[in-house]
Amino acid sequence: MLEPLLILSLRGVAADLAVKVAIATAMATIVFTSISSLRAHHQRGAVRWELVRVCMAEAPCSSIIPALPFVNRLLAQKSSRHAGVVPENPMPRQAGPLA
């Protein structure tokens, strides 16, 4: 992932945007490589589709359930802004030499 960052930063792309582009590029590569690998293994009869179905059925739950506390916090902050209430800082600063 260092190469896209280096190339984009040399072309004058902002660092925060360069990181997002590099991550998106890596994810796209992973998706297409995985699909190609799945097709090749399927042609050889080496895919256990009953396990694929179980994993695909569990995938939404394994991504939604861990995100629920964050969604609840965001919704609480949004509703408190509309009510004129100042939300508490979700990450209070620690006392220390750099604080």
Keywords:
single chain; 99 residues; mainly alpha; 4 helices
Explain what you see.
The protein has 99 residues and is mostly helical. It has one domain. Helix content is 70%, strand content 0%. The protein is built from four helices and no strands. Helix 1 crosses helix 2. The radius of gyration is 22 Å and the shape is flat.
Question: Could you provide a short overview of the structure?
Answer:
70% of the residues lie in helices and 0% in strands. It has 99 residues and is an all-alpha fold.
Poorly predicted sequence stretches spanning 5 or more consecutive residues: none
Structural class, by secondary structure, is mainly alpha
Overall mean pLDDT stands at 81
Globally, the shape reads flat
* Number of E strands: 0
Radius of gyration from the alpha-carbon trace, in angstroms: 22 Å
Question: Helical residue percent?
Answer: 55-70%
Count of distinct structural domains: 1
> What portion of the residues fall into strands of 2 or more residues?
under 5%
Major sheet, described briefly?
none
- Give the SSE string: HHHH
Task: Quote the distance from N terminus to C terminus.
Answer: 32 Å
How many alpha or pi helices? 4
